[in-house]
Amino acid sequence: MIAIKHFNQMKKIFNTFVEFIFWVAIFGSPFLTCFAVATIIYSSHENLRFLSIAIIIIGFIGGILLAEKIRKKYGCSNYISKIFS
């Protein structure tokens, strides 16, 4: 009986870890896109530092909002599995 409880706890920890990894992957899409755009803008016009920082912040907030919306509506692992299937 103790082994079954231990197994269920380990399974729950593993599922939480997988959901977190997929959440980070969903978050990374808008964040890394905005980061790349901000880097290009900053490297070509260094006086636009404020705009670059603002774009990165928008990507950060947008990534969080997107990942949370997907997590609540579909679940991160279900969403990622639908994309890759």
Order of helices and strands: HHH
How many E strands? 0
Tally of discrete structural domains: 1
Binned strand content: under 5%
Shape type = elongated
The low-pLDDT segments are none
**Percent helix:** over 70%
In angstroms, what is the radius of gyration? 18 Å
Short note summarizing the structure:
The chain is mostly helical and 85 residues long.
Would you mind describing this structure in some detail?
This protein is mainly α. It has one domain (19-84). The protein has three helices and no strands. It has helices spanning 2-44, 49-73, 76-84. Helix 1 (2-44) packs antiparallel against helix 2 (49-73). The longest helix has 43 residues, at 2-44. The mean pLDDT is 93.
Name a few traits of the molecule.
mainly alpha, elongated, 3 helices, 85 residues
Q: Helices and strands in order, then pairings?
A:
Layout: H1 2-44, H2 49-73, H3 76-84
